Amino acid sequence: MACLHHWLSTMSFSARVIGLRKQKGLTQQSLADASGIHVQQIKRYEAGSAQPTAEALKKLALALHVTADFLLFEEGERELDDDLKLRFEAIAAMPSEEQAIAKAVLDAMIVKNQVAGALERVGRPAPAAKEKKATAGRKGMSKPSTHPSTLSAASSSCAATG
Fold first, then answer.
1. Model-level pTM?
2. From first to last of its 162 residues, what are the pLDDT tens digits of the chain?
3. What stretch(es) of the chain map to CATH 1.10.260.40?
4. N- to C-terminal Cα distance for the chain?
5. Which CATH architecture has domain 2-72?
């Protein structure tokens, strides 16, 4: 069965429907009866000349006893890699306050990435790229710190010398 699963997972939607239907010993008509989809439409799906609506996809998945994701996506296309899964499991085990912080950090990174992608699509460099260009001209110069503790220390030393 694992071999069949791998074979089915590297196929197109239409080929997966055909493979699953035959594996289950169903004819096109019996799949149509089980799913409530007209047999001519099943033939179109299998021929690759039509794609199902969300509702038809749900009916096909139920009739074939698989998930809609299995019908639509190739293996690994919709799965998180193991490294990310472990991290998300670790976050899920954290207290709710720490989960909220982790979610906020992730949300910020996602938004940053989406903005950078949107800017690239319209032909503008991302803000990080502009910053890198600006600091590249200041070789050997360090960027002044804006951390609050550094600012307060600097202002108190100025007051002492002033």
1. 0.45
2. 444 444 444 478 899 999 999 999 999 999 999 999 999 999 999 999 999 999 999 999 999 999 888 888 876 666 666 777 788 889 999 999 999 999 999 999 989 998 988 888 888 776 655 555 444 444 444 444 444 444 334 434 444 444
3. 2-72
4. 81
5. Orthogonal Bundle (1.10)
